[in-house]
């Protein structure tokens, strides 16, 4: 079946892996819409059925141009400022992208003549906040504590309300902590395992580098390999049962940051130099998922943390 699929944020870390997987179906055309703020063109495979359009999701003009140029069967909305701590530093700027950008896309999706088969929204475990009951299920208390988490939850509510109010087909994915090749380590706000990986490479090259731990290193996360996230996203796009539903996508495993550093040391046969700093404001201490709900759709994570890290190391 010939489908036109929009991936916003498709030049970024998770988006580019999704694009690669979707483009394997040769009859599909994938449109990547991205402003290249943290993503880059090199992330996108050069293939005839992948087209790139540069634009901002938070610009009504750019999104209008996108929907004048194409008519979509599926929309995966991943473009966002992905850093929790950047949202604490820049709440207004991140709100414009993470919240306004979602509403622009929803507005144009509902106005599109052809009915969208599914609008899948990339939300986050950050919506759960610090309430201590674990693991987080989709019915756990929602209490986001940062602008990032608040905008993700408000966006989720917009997304599901567009189903109730206007009949748009939607699904919401709450990713836990994603890692893997192409995660950009360039900023202090980057995902922790991309920074840790870069530090280990610098040390191996004989450069002076130290991994900065914020807090005591005992914070716990559910680190999920990017290919498992892609598996979950494609299921949410295809399965009718996901309509207007919300799902955690994670590994179902939990690890402290200190455990992960020890795993790197074993895998790479080296010592990682570390320094301890103040905990970041808005940082969540314990976050891990129940994945029972998405398993009912057929999801099965394929990577344990050591399998995922090994594949990551092989593909840097
Ligand atoms: P990323 O920064 O690599 O990807 C985001 C992409 O969006 C980039 O290519 C960037 O250039 C683009 N972008 C940013 N602002 C834009 C704008 N205004 N207009 C158009 N494009 C814009 O980050 P990622 O880790 O791949 O995150 C992808 C999505 O997944 C985000 O919505 C993020 O909030 C969500 N998420 C990520 C994680 C994680 O652990 N990485 C966890 C939960 C949720
Ligand atoms: C991450 C994602 C966010 C997602 C959320 C879901 C990124 C940049 N952030 O946020 O998009 O919604 O998971 O759970 O991908 N840390 C250090 N040293 C560093 C960097 C980080 O100690 O150099 C610590 C942080 O303080 C935090 C943990 O590592 O305790 C994880 O940090 P980070 O990768 O930024 O992820 P989250 O804030 O969990």
From TrEMBL:
Chain ranges passing through the membrane: none
Top-level taxon: Bacteria
InterPro entries referenced in this protein's UniProt entry, alphabetically: NAD(P)-bd_dom, NAD(P)-bd_dom_sf
One Pfam family from the record: GDP_Man_Dehyd
Domain NAD(P)-binding per the UniProt entry, residue ranges: 6-311
Name the record gives this protein: UDP-glucose 4-epimerase
